[in-house]
Amino acid sequence: MALKKDVLTKAQKAELEQLRPLIVRMGLLPLMTGAAWRSALDAVMAIAGYSGLYRLRAVRDAVDPPENRWQGPLPHGLPLYNFIEWLELNPKPQGNRNYSAAIKQALAEAKISYSETASGIRIHGYRRNRT
Predict the structure, then answer these.
(1) The most confident of 7-16, 24-33, 36-45, by mean pLDDT
(2) Does 30-128 carry CATH code 3.30.1240?
């Protein structure tokens, strides 16, 4: 099931306009486009048996979410892609089964960069400029 391109409401468009200067002030460098996010999510959601639990840090969040607070399944609850600083996928959403290899393969085939953390596989929407 391919995700459709976002159709924005007037309120969402206004919120995006407010977000752009914040991104510049915070020194965030965009790494993902809407099309790239859709490709990443389509790839992960196509993994047989994977429930797609995730946690994310939004651009406006002051701190990272707790490592044990997973949401989902994908794409339920996701904000607009422009607001996602990073999205971390839980490779063990159902007990002992580990989907790490399948997630990494799906992201690699979709040409999506990722990093591994202690708790999951992370897709970065932005990189913080360390100046």
Answers:
(1) 36-45
(2) yes
